[in-house]
Amino acid sequence: MSNGGRSISVLNVAEKPSVAKSVATILSRNQGMRIREGRSRYNKIFEFNYSIRGQPCRMLVTSVTGHVMELDFDDRYRKWHSCDPAALFEAPVRKIVPQDKLDIKRTLEEESRRCQWLVLWLDCDREGENIAFEVIDICTAVNQRLTIKRARFSALIEREIHESVQNLVEPNQWFAHAVDARQEIDLRIGASFTRFQTMLLRDAFVIDSVGDDRNLVLSYGPCQFPTLGFVVERYWEVQSHEPEEFWTINCNHRSEEGLATFNWMRGHLFDYTCAIIIYEMCIQEPSATVTKVRQQEKYKYPPHPLNTIELEKRASRYFRMSSEHTMKVAEELYQAGFISYPRTETDSFSARTNLQAIVQEQLEHPVWGSYAQQLLDPGSGLWRNPSNGGHDDKAHPPIHPTKFSPGENNWSQDHHFVPTTLTLDSGVTRPPPLLSEADLLSCMDKAGIGTDATMHDHIKKLLDRFYVTKDQNTRFSPTNLGEALVMGYDDMGYKLWKPNLRSMMEFDMKAVSEGSKSKTEVLQTCLQQMKACFIDARLNKEKLFEAMSVFFDRSNRSVREDQHGTGEVVCLCQLCNQSNMVLKQSRDGNFMVSCLGYPLCRNVVWLPGSVSEAAITSSVCNSCTPRPIHMIQFKFRRSEIPPNYNVDHLGCIGGCDDILRQLTEICGTGSRMPARGRGSTQSQSTAQTISRQQMCTNCRQTGHSLGDCPSVVSAASHSRTRRRSTHDGEASVPCSRCGASCTVRTANTANNRGRKFYSCQAQGCNFFVWADSLDSGTGGGGRRDSNGVSSRGRGRGSRGSTFVSPKIDTRTQSMNTKTRFLEEQWKIKKQFQLVLSRVFPGRTLESILGDGGRREWSSSTADKAVPSLQNRTWDDDLA
DNA sequence: GCAAGGTC
């Protein structure tokens, strides 16, 4: 180690300026330290003398600012149209120093030229180790004789830093390799999919909700997409929720000692008949004996020490600050020395931390100073050491105040941390709330999406890309664009929007960092799989088109070339009287007759979805005017039309063709919407409407009404709301249960899709009523009983034994995910039915309640028979 | 014009 007492020059490099300063201050003991400028204005150079294991050293301590290098493709692959995006899975990549890091690079080169040793003080995590190798590459390129050492430290405290520099180790190549692999995979997947979906979709649709869509980038990233997935999935859950009425039996007993409230152990029942029978039994035998009093003590534990994610969650929950803004404010407070480093996973204080000293600092504060005093008073018994959250990034302590301040003049309100509490309660049959920012951060944290320093960036990216919106309550909803992209990939069967891909990658990265897998092996396997996925996604691009078509109009920038066929003329457009109507087949194979004046004229006649072939003939319809209207020779798919219809049919779109109208009604049109009104009753009434030649008020075509109009369905800006309901969300009637306001909504479940219901918006009130039970008959309230419960709702009491499997419309692939949610709900109900059938084999619920065992029927009977039913509620079954 | 990860 010693070279005969001659001093050597040691270049020490930290990950950030603050660490360089701390290390230099500790090692120099703040004596004889000289500070000079480097090439980069932020990265100073600290110089002082020190001795490492008896070797006199001239120490130079400087820093970088995170990564010095970036991974990118070779120049010839950088332009978007330079290559097939699939080629990006193999295109050569290299690490380069970006323009804004060149100053730091020059400092490192200049200083390392005159040094004998290089000591790396980068953060002790995988990224830090990777940055260490970037520094090594830059320094050894100009000085190959450098001796390279790594300082390992877990906190910027004196003993730790001195121990570290006296026990230097080798840098960990495995850690660095894991990051290399992560960078390369992220770049190749991100760039290929982003270029692919941007170039495929941006010009094909009018994405008018984002302003100028010509510059839109439809990015894909292994972190941003799963984050989007969380938002969309919750949104679908909310949408697919179908409220169910339930009944509870509430019991109070007032005596001289006061009022006692008894809660039903079962909580509630969804079956009205069952509930009313039990209720009647209670009425008949109203006296009861208290057999057991169970007292339960509940503990509420104080939170773990604060790490970055918890800081962001709490700032969002209590202050409604976005995670991105929180990190900005925290960074400012850190820079000003008021709080410790804000980017940390650590949620446990080391045993060496003097917590009392931290509290001591706060004694002067006008608001919480007295509380700090009480904490420190041994007589109060209030002091307890914070719990250990179990995480330690070995680089930073939990976030805590480092300096007292009663508040600074230049602080905005955002810089004050004022504690409040907030609780959120929801009813059983209410849909879950949309994801809040805190929820989203939790989802990401749980699934390992992003790091504590980047999670807020991913959320912001979703907002910047117009994939999600955030409401006033910091709750996220997907935009049409965000939902369409997730739907498209989901329909392909690829879970690119799920967190699994990132989790698998993270698993592999861990293997590389532990040396159990090589970087090359992981890169090869992962990229091979992802390329296969990319190729397959490209083959299935129709799924993306279909999903986008649900929400957006086709753009005239590419619509003409996208449609197959030359577009043979059927007739003159009766709407604009200027252009011809031509027969076309859309990308998804459905036939239509549309006006060539598009987009100025949007007249379109969608033909039945069961048409497999259609060709214009020279024959002209004799009855329809204005002539000529050419007849079309159709071929229908046998399996999609009723047996009494022929597969071959010479038809007319002018309004005279009953068969064509009937098949349009039976099979639906070729649009992405599920065909409505397939039931016999509705078919009849619609058929009558058509025979009177009524037209859709939107596109003025026969064969459908406004509600089913394909033009409305695909209309860009309004598609989402119209698809659900034209009136969803409007405050409409006062709640007959609590007096608050009920809004009208539309059920989206298999059994009741499209059916309107009123739902109370008041927290804790679960009242709902089907709109049609109010609209028909005697009008509002006519079919409701004195409790405001719809009689139709009661009728559904039999649902416990008459489950109907949801019908899946195979033509609406884009809706598959939503359908799956419904299926899941149905399965859960089915399981509950199974449990009951095990308790009372071979008997219906009615027969159980109606026989001589009626008196014995109670929740406790079932509980005894099936132990798993003990204390079990519908909530448990849903869980 | 693309990813995610550092940090100013």
Strand order of the largest sheet: 2-3-4-1-7-8
CATH level-1 class of the domain at 181-240 and 433-546: Mainly Alpha
CATH superfamily of the domain at 181-240 and 433-546: Topoisomerase I, domain 2
**What about the largest sheet?**
6 strands, mixed
| Cα radius of gyration in angstroms | 35 Å
Residue fraction in strands: 5-15%
CATH architecture annotation name of the domain at 181-240 and 433-546: Orthogonal Bundle
Judged by helices, strands and strand pairing, the structural class is alpha+beta
Q: Give the number of DSSP strands.
A: 26
Report mean pLDDT, rounded to a whole number: 75
The dominant shape is flat
- Counting DSSP H or I runs of 4 or more residues, the number of helices is 28
Unreliable stretches (pLDDT < 50, length at least 5) are 418-427, 559-567, 671-731, 775-819, 848-879
Distance between the termini: 64 Å
The third-level CATH topology of the domain at 181-240 and 433-546 is Topoisomerase I, domain 2
Can you give the helix content as a percent range? 25-40%
Walk me through the structure.
By secondary structure, this protein is α+β, with helices and mostly antiparallel strands. Among the domains are: 164 residues, Rossmann fold, CATH 3.40.50; 174 residues, Topoisomerase I, domain 2; 108 residues, Topoisomerase I, domain 4; 163 residues, no CATH class. It is 36% helix and 15% strand. The strands form 8 sheets. Strands 2-3-4-1-7-8 form a 6-stranded mixed sheet. A 4-stranded antiparallel sheet has the order 16-17-18-19. Helix 2 packs across helix 3, helix 6 crosses helix 25 and helix 19 runs antiparallel to helix 20. The C terminus is likely disordered. The structure holds one DNA strand of 8 nucleotides.
